Structure formats: C-alpha cells, structure tokens
Amino acid sequence: MIEIAELLPERPGPLWRLVKQCGVNHAVGQIDFTPKSGVPEDEQPWSLASLERVKRAYNEGGFELSVIESRPPLDKAKLGLPGRDREIDIVCSLIQNMGALGIPVWCYEWMPVINWTRTSSTIEARGGALATGYDHELMDQTPFAETGEVSEETLWENLAPFLERVVPVAEAAGVKLAMHPDDPPLSPIRGLGRIMRSVENFDRLLELVPSPVNGIALCQGNFALMTDDLPAVIRHFGTRGKVFFVHLRDVRGTPEKFVEVFHDEGPTDMLACLRAYRDIGFDGVLRPDHVPTMEGDSNDDPGYSSIGRLFAIGYIKGLREAVYYEETH
User: Fold this and answer.
1) Is the pTM of this model over 0.85?
2) Which domains are present in the chain?
C-alpha cells in the first residue's frame, strides 16, 4: 500500500506533532549535510553516528525514516570541477551509512548551482492564499560569472561517472537512488543546462547505468509539465519497478509560466494518479509538496506552509482510501 509521509526537519518541533496528529507515520528526512569545518569524519552529518542519532530522534517521535531528501554539496561533481571526487566520496559514505541503518531511499537531483526556483511566492490563489509560481520572462538570464554557460551534454558527461561510482555502493548497501526532476523542467536557466526535464531523458538516465537501484522520484508537479497523460507515465516507469518515491503536487500552466495550486484544484486527475500507483503495486512513500500559504500561517518558507500541508495530507488520505476501497469492492 502507498504510505503517506511528510518532509520533517531533523529536530522535533510543532510540525512533527501536527503531522503525527494527522496520522502520518513516515518521515522524509530534511538534514543539513553541509560539511562541518574542524569536525572529524566520523562525526560529520553523513557519518554513521550522526545519522543514527537523527534516525533515533525520528523513531522516538513516532516516525519511520523512509527517505532522505537532503544532499551533500554536489556542484563540483555536476560541473566536473576539481574537488568532485571528494563530493562523490561523501555521497558514497552517506549511502553506505543509510544502508547500515536501514534507510531505504535517497532522493537526489542533478540541477547545477540553482535548485528548484520560482519568480514569485505571493501569487494570489483560492480564497486569498499565497502561491508560488515561475515566469521565465521574469527570470534573470545572466549566466553566472563563476560558471559561465554549462551545456546539457556536460551534465550528462558528469552524471555517467557519478552513477558508475555510486550505483555499485547503493547496490551493496540496499539503498535506492531516486532522481528528482528539474524544477522547473526547463533548459537553460541563467546559462545552466538542465537535463532531467523530460520523460525521454529519464529513460536515458535509467539506461545510463542499468541497475535495480537506479530509479526515479516522481515529482508530479514537474512530470505534469512534461506530459499530458501523467497516469500513463506513472505506469511507464512503475511497471518497470522504477518509481521509488513520489511528490504529490500540481501546477497550472507550462514549463515557461506556471503557478502551483492546491492539490484539489489543479488540472491533474489526482484520483487517476493514485489508481496508477495502486495498479503498479507502488509500496513506497508519497509526500505532499509545495502547498499555498493559507490564512493564519507564515509565508516565510513559501511552498511549505504548515496549514497547507495538513490540508494536503487530509486530501491525499481521502484519495488513498477511495482507490483501495475500489480494489476490494
């Protein structure tokens, strides 16, 4: 059965209690993997001792740590710069330690320099809520001086040796590698190519280093901008056993100009998507993502309003109950 999870910081707080009160038992770890100066290797955030402490905290809060979605710095690896081997070594240590602790999925991405990005976080949404959005015409397109233009082929050329190093480690550790799509799925942005932006490119990813642990974080908001038939894409990857982790969210628009919407009001047929996950036998975790900021909540962390997340959890629980009820009646 699909399990619902929520992205939680590594230290307990009000969000932990709110999410637990909604009946969610799985956590997606949001951990700071920035290397600590002067700290020995066996006490760095990716070390076995450090991860064990974090996992224990989630467990004591009533959560199973099912996915780690944070990543150590990887820009040197993505761009093929000096220091990339050290970055990859850290990833290998992280994955080995995740395996030792039974943490089954690492969600990573291959966006150089700029991670997910928006041009606005105050677009008026339903009932006056505040939504995030992207407009490519408003995006500063000046290439970064420190990198210059980076081609898509450069990113492919650097992804291959990364996977060749990391995949065997993940296989030995029993950890699945879930590649998150580019957000937005658009290239280039500020002179930086972006390659995880189409269904065809995800097929290429899976063929680059074929392995049972080489798979996908199916972020519906991004994939909905790549296809007109998202349930078919879920089945395309899911019947091959390649969907390891899911972000459930929705957008209205195109890759060049879109706004993020409440889970129940977008163009995507969410019920059909949940049926597709059921039909492929997906038994991993799904978490809501990028919600509008609702009345009475802070917009200091756009896309991650606590109240919006609770609304999304309730909506997804209803969808899940409906699709599994269909299966037995």
Assistant:
1) yes
2) 3-328 (3.20.20.150)
